[in-house]
Each structure stands twice: as C-alpha cells, then as structure tokens.
Amino acid sequence: MAETLRQRPVYRNIHISQIVAYRLPPAGIVSILHRVSGVLMFLLLPFVIWLFDHSVTSEISYARYAAVFKSGIGVLPGWFMKLVALALIWAYLHHLIAGLRHLWMDATHAVTKEFGHTSAVVTLALSVALTLGLGFKLFF
Amino acid sequence: MAEQNFGSRRTVVGAHYGLRDWLSQRITAALMALFTLAVIVQVLLPGEMGYDKWAGIFSRQWMKVLTFVVIVSLLVHVWVGMRDVWMDYVKPVGVRLALQVFTIAWLVGCAGWAIQVLWRL
To answer: What distance in Å separates residue B74's CA from the closest CA in chain A?
Structure first.
C-alpha cells in the first residue's frame, strides 16, 4: 500500500520552460489570455490615453490622431500602429467577454464542467471573430 | 494535526482575506462594461463619424461623470489585477515591492492624465 502511494505522480509548480508541454483545456486558455490581455492593456495604457487626448481635444489634434494610423508616428509606420490598435482591440474584447463569463459564473454559481468548457469555447470564438471583423474594417 | 482553517470553518478575524478586492474588481468591471455599451450605442447613432460627433459624445455632462467614474474604476481594477500578477509570478519581496510601486505610479499618472483630458472638454 505504501509502495503504490509513493509511486503516484507528483505535480510541482510548473516551471516556465515546461509550459509548452502542457495541454491546456479551453477554460485554461481563456484564463491565461485574460491575464495576458490585461497586462498588455496595462502596458499600453499611456498610448490609449494619448489617443483619447488627441481624438477629443481639437480638430487639429483629431487630424493628428487619425494620421497616426495613416502615415505613422516617428519611425513606426501606419500599418504597424494599426496592428497595435488591433492587438488592443483583441485584448479589450477578450478581457471583456472573459470578464462577463466570470461575472455570470459568480452570479449564478454556474460551475459545472460542461458550462466551463462551452462558455470558454464561446469566449474564444466570439473574441477572435469580433477581432477579425473589426480588423477587416480597420485595414480595408 | 492543525485544526481546519479553510472553507466555512476559516477563522475570519485579524486580516483581510481578499473579499473587498474581489468585490471591487467585479463592481468596477461591471461599470466599465456599462461604459463600453454607452460609448458603442452613441457611436452607432446616426451621423457621420468625425471629430464633432466623437468629441460631442464625451462633452455631455452625464458622459463626463460616467467617464470620470470609469477612470477611477480602471485605477482600482487594474491595481487589483496587476497586484495579483506580481503576487503569483514574482517571489523576491524587494522586486515585487518595486513592481507594485511602479504599478501605482504608472496607474495614478495615467488616471491623472485622463482626468486632465476630460476636464478641459
């Protein structure tokens, strides 16, 4: 008995180098992307406020805001700034939808395995589809 | 064997157990979702999108109040979230403290800037 107990697998903290070998379920992917999208928006917050500032302050600043995505800013070309905006769009959508999923689970105690799985798949599908749609509008 | 100190038997005295942070993160999230909806609806209202329409959305008094509340909400929400990230991944106390100080400075600076923009509209 003690022999079989000792042979059971031991799960320690996952080291960063082992991450790729782990197969995450959809809910796990939604969870880690919730973090990634949150940190991304935290780091890009000054850029977002810069856009807000220039888009509302005056017509001249509005033109400058629009030019960022046409002719770029500094050494960064317009298409790159559009990619940054697209990353922000994805991060916002993913964070919002995954957050609403959290609120729904908290409010209704919907914690079945099935709901966790299907709602995670819906979150991923919806955020990617909306990002693609808005990305199409942004680039074409 | 130590006595069970979790779940319904947890001794809830002497320290915070994160309920306030958890709750404030949810409430601020709901406020920001509401703000998002308010902006989307006004953007989709008839009229060509340009400076006048966009700046007009944020110059209405109720929208200014809502945007102000959302800026403060964002400050609280992101603080709780980033603190969670640092607590989970950064173990050396000194580095974690430095990152937390950076987070507070970054967020207060951003919030101040955003409020300044809102103020002069």
So the answer is: 10
